[in-house]
Amino acid sequence: MSASWLFKMAWRDSRKNTGRLLLFTGSILLGIAALVAINSFSYNLKNQIDLESKELLGADLEVQSRQPIPDEIYSLFDSLDLELSREISFASMIYFPKSDGTRLVSIRALEVGFPFYGELGTLPANAQTQIDEGQNTLIDKSLMLQYGASVGEIVKVGTLQFKIAGEVISIPGQTALMSGVAPPVFIPYKLVNETGLLKKGSRINYRAHIKYPDQFDEKTFREIIKPRLEKADLRYTDVAERKKDIGEGYSSLAGFLNLTAFVALLLGCIGVASSAQIYIKGKVNSIAVLRCLGATGNQAMWIYLIQIAFMSLIGSVAGAILGSASQFLLPGLFNDFLPFEVSLSISWASVFQGVGLGVLIAILFAMSPLLDIKKISPLKVLRASYEAEKAKGHVYVVALLILVLIYLFTAAQLKSWWGAFVFTIGLVIAFGLLSGLAKLTMWLIRKYFPVKRSMIFRQSLSNLYRPNNQTAVLIVSIGLGTALIATLLLSQDMLLNKIEFSSKTNNRPNMVLFDIQDDQIDSLKKFTEDLEVSAVGSVPIVNMRLHTIRGMSVEDVKADTSLGISDRIVNREYRVTYRDSLIDSETLIKGSWQERVENQGDSIFISLADNIAEDMLAEIGDPIAFNVQGAIIQTYVGSIREVDWQRIQTNFLVVFPEGVLEEAPKFHVLLARYDSLPQSASYQNQVIKKFPNISIIDLSLVIETIDQIISRVSFVIRFMAFLSILTGLIVLIGSIMLSKFQRIRESVLLRTLGANKFQILSINALEFFFLGSLASLSGILIALVSSWVLSWYSFDTIFAPQFAALAFVYIIITGITVLIGLSNSRQIIRKSPLEILRQEM
Amino acid sequence: MNVLSVENLNKTFKSGSKKLKVIDDVSFNLETGSTLSIVGPSGSGKTTLLGLCAGLDRADSGKVELCGENLSVLNEDERALVRNKNVGFIFQNFNLMPSLTALENVMIPMELKGEKNASARAKELLNDVGLGERLNHYPVQLSGGEQQRVSIARAFSNAPKILFADEPTGNLDGKTGATIEALIFEMNKQQNTSLVMVTHDMRLAEETTHILKMNNGRIEIPVH
Fold first, then answer.
1. Rounded Cα distance, A662 and A35, in Å
2. Considering only alpha carbons, which residue of chain A is nearest residue B165?
3. Residue A715 pLDDT more than 80?
4. What is the average pLDDT score of chain A?
5. How many CB atoms sit inside 10 A of residue A247's CB?
6. What is the per-residue pLDDT across A451-509, written as a single tens digit (0 to 9) for each?
7. Cα dist. A507→A502, A510, A533, A539 in Å?
8. Cα-atom radius of gyration of chain A, to the nearest Å?
């Protein structure tokens, strides 16, 4: 007998079951749509990165340094006939006289030429050409908007006044989020010295943007340029590296989103497994007849396997179409994270991958009930109660295959075998917990059944464990979606609360002033107090470089790669402070703290942050010498501290005791606290007028920016978690459809026995209320546990969940569940019992 | 020549912790073309014996030889092949596939055999049982008597050597039952098929050439 007969039988048998079979389609549709949308967008993004690779950097090579780039490097570029555009950038304040507003910005003093590829998007379009023609500036569009500034207006940067030549809309290779705290302000390179802002101690970045000639040989870079840059301790980025950075940055986000979509698909597949089981149960008699008439077990199984595979194929194809169409929504979600616009087209690779995965995983989840078909005895036609012994071996094999598939898919997304292992185990634990909770609840209901409660109450409760119930499946699918959303909600709150706590608590600074010169600090403090802003404290900062570690010179350390100390550690400039005690973001974990060096010549014991001690491979007692503006200071590691870097505070890698650096060239950071926003604005204005080189960060602005970033990221993640809930609800609709006949029979029987509409509705409403409550509360419980773990290990903050937000999640999810459940009851109460029975039979 | 040969057949079912012997050392033979009724009170083992003879189940011990094939040594799929080639079934509750039309239900055994003119033959058979106008009706759209007619057409569709019928008129009213009885015997005669029928109805049993009476799993009155 041919395969065509199996297909013919599958089609014949499916005609009367289209509604039920569509459940397989609906269950996986959203998961596949999300996967295809994300993968298609990633594919198009990758193409765009390849297409615009040079525009991402704006040049062929970018050289960066915290020190002025040596003249010999410029001579080298000149000798090689490379086009050059220099840039000096630093954080400073800008003053808008018209609105009397000040703001921390990123000043970018740029020579003509950059960007060599792509363009600085400005309004008016030719604004960049005007910047070098006088004292002109280009200002970030959001900043213009914030201060109501317009082209032609005057702004003050340092001691110079500039006319706004245009607003900056886009910068090659930069995303909107990059300009959050300090938006860019472009000024002519030749005027940067005249602003008076390049004071000693300021954090200044020097860049050289390079364009290669048309016939440039890459060998010249590898053999001539690269060794010279490395010798001069200069960092550099070329097009390939920038491409990799952007690609990697997005691919981890895409990988994460793909996993969320995959969770939605898995939830849908649980729906498939459950629907398949109930569908096959309803087919037992037909299968027994077929076997009686001479069909083999395999033939019978294939008839239903073909049906499920075909419906999964339809679901996957529909999902792929929906996904391909909805990728056009994704740029809206990702705009702020991407440095360019992505042109979108259908990615057939993603479509085929999505369809293949959908069919494969749906069949795998349906495989256990399908394999049970082979065990259906033809004797069932004579004795309906006859049950052949079921071998359970195949269940374990199928479960193992599913786990392997999950593991492989996750590993491909995360590009980490260990990460995939943790994810798979996490998923198994979450599924196990939810299904365990569901089973425990059903057991408790049966064990402690409230026999004395009303009939309505008892009937609705007992429906939760009726034959063919899908209580566990619904609790897992809706519960997991709820857990995802609630965890995100709690984590976001914790993160923001933590930052706000740092700034709102009494006497905590909410403003940081930096780049304060040694001769300015006392007058600034007095000025601050005069304006009734509290100067909470000041921190001296001394810049220094490493001279020797454990007696080895920096050059020796760099030459000896076997040491395992990276060049970054020995090359960097260290910003060091000195004080006599720990601050509250620090905990001493090793050694002892030296408060003060009393006498000249006494040993100096410094304190290292644990991460830098680890990078330097430094232990207590190790000698380390620093070079402070040419003077060598020999120190010893006296203690190692754990530092909470997430707190907005002046934290340092290296802390000296008092009595050593007081006379060294230094600058200061002043921590201040204001009481109201108008006070802050007025204070900033007056400080900038009197001390133009000083920069100010208002922490409320930082919190606002972080909040914006978190909100945007979490919106994307919440959207994906919402997909899981939506899939859960589709599974719920499926379960209602599957149990419809059984429910109708029960309701009709109750109506026949005299139950009124209200009683029928109440029973159904209560059943779905219990189901929705169980599912959402289980999810919330898991979210509380996982957020508590996160607060303990990740955020290091007090766990204070917002129960109002959780109550909102509970009400919404339970409400939707009840509404969907009740939609099924309308038919029952509108028509006569006999009419419904005739129709359904 | 025997179409069915049963030797020392035994079958036990588990009922909780107890074992229930439902067929106890049963032996009999049925010649080709003969008809046999199995009668006896409820729970006497009639239907179990029918199932074992038709190869729907395996005995604990003993031997069943159907159309020359020793069913005791065959696995389920091999027995399915024997059923498809040689056996027709008629059930008390008709057992039509609800998602298939009358025509498709009748076609299945022939299609399973790989016959090419299944549709034409099925139409012919449905015509023979008086349902030529209701080929594309689903079982739910047919009366009980009509469903049993489809079932009879299906039973004869693979030109079986032997027909097994389990209470074929048990779910029908007297008049319809009589019509169905007449149809079974008529088609049985036409196609020279052997018949094994389980029934409570002694009047119907009298219509067959042999009667076997069961009680408590044993043959009370052997084939006569």
1. 60
2. A382
3. no
4. 82
5. 16
6. 788 878 888 888 788 776 778 888 888 888 788 778 877 876 776 666 555 555 556 67
7. 10, 9, 11, 16
8. 34
Cβ(B220)–Cβ(B55) below 8 Å: no
Length of chain A, please? 841
Please give the single-letter amino acid code of residue B192: N
CB spacing of B84 vs A5 below 8 angstroms: no
Of chain A residues 129-158, which have a CB less than 8 A from chain B?
none
Token readout for A27 is 């269950």
Contacts of B163 (CB under 8 A, 6+ apart): B87, B88, B89, B90, B155, B156, B184, B188, B193, B194, B195, B196
Task: Give B-chain residues touching A19 at CB under 8 angstroms.
Answer: none
Percent residues over pLDDT 90 in chain A: 17
Instruction: Judge: B56–A16 Cβ closer than 8 Å, yes or no.
Output: no
Interchain CB contact of A379 with B (< 8 Å):
yes
pLDDT reported for residue A646 = 62
A290 touches chain B (CB under 8 A): yes
Nearest one of B98, B100, B92, B94 to B122, comparing CA atoms:
B100
Bridge partner residues of A577 (DSSP):
A655
Name every residue whose Cβ is closer than 8 Å to that of residue A755 and which is 6 or more positions away in sequence. A747
Cα dihedral A412, A415, A418, A419 in deg (nearest 10): -80
CB B109 within 8 A of CB B103: no
Q: What torsion, rounded to 10 degrees, do the Cα atoms A740, A744, A747, A753 define? A: -160
Chain B contact residues (CB < 8 Å to A):
47, 50-51, 56-57, 76-77, 80-81, 83-85, 87, 89, 91, 95-100, 104, 108-109, 111-114, 138, 140, 154, 158, 166
Nearest to B83 by CA among A285, A381, A377, A293: A293
pLDDT at residue B70 is higher than 90: yes
Q: Please give the sequence-ordered ranges of beta strands (E in DSSP) within A51-172, or none if there are none.
A: 61-65, 83-96, 101-110, 121-123, 136-140, 154-157, 160-170
Where in the sequence is the domain holding B46, given as residue range(s)?
A: 2-221
On chain B, the residues whose CB falls within 8 A of the CB of A1 are 111-114
Interface test with A, best of B11, B95, B110 (most A CBs within 10 A): B95
Please give the pLDDT value at position A841.
Answer: 41
Give this complex's ipTM. Answer: 0.86
- C-alpha dihedral sign at A798, A799, A803, A806: positive
The model's pLDDT over A48-78, given as tens digits with 9 standing for 90+, comes to: 777 777 777 888 889 988 888 888 898 988 8
CATH number at residue B112: 3.40.50.300
- What predicted TM-score, i.e. pTM, was given to this entire model? 0.69
Predicted local confidence at residue B153, as pLDDT = 93
Q: How many domains does chain B have?
A: 1
Q: Measured between CB atoms, does A838 come within 8 Å of chain B?
A: no
Exposure of A280 by Cβ count < 10 A (0-12 exposed, 13-18 middle, 19+ buried)? buried
Say if the Cβ atoms of A377 and B57 lie within 8 Å.
yes
Q: Are A43 and A255 in contact (CB under 8 A)?
A: no
> Which of the four pLDDT bands, split at 50, 70 and 90, describes residue A179?
low
Are A86 and A65 in contact, with CB atoms under 8 Å apart?
Answer: no
- Nearest partner of B193 among B5, B28, B30, B34, judged by Cα: B34
By CA distance, what is A289's nearest residue in B? B95
CA distances from A188 to A8, A109, A125, A127, B102 (A): 77, 5, 18, 12, 89
Decide which of A239 and A654 is more confident. A654
Dump pLDDT digits (tens) for B176-193: 888 888 888 988 888 889
- pLDDT tens per residue across span A525-552: 999 888 888 888 889 999 898 999 988 8
pLDDT band at A175 (very low <50, low <70, confident <90, very high): low
Say yes or no: A753 contacts chain B, CB-CB below 8 A: no
Could you report the per-residue pLDDT of A734-755, keeping only the tens digit for each? 777 776 666 777 777 777 677 7
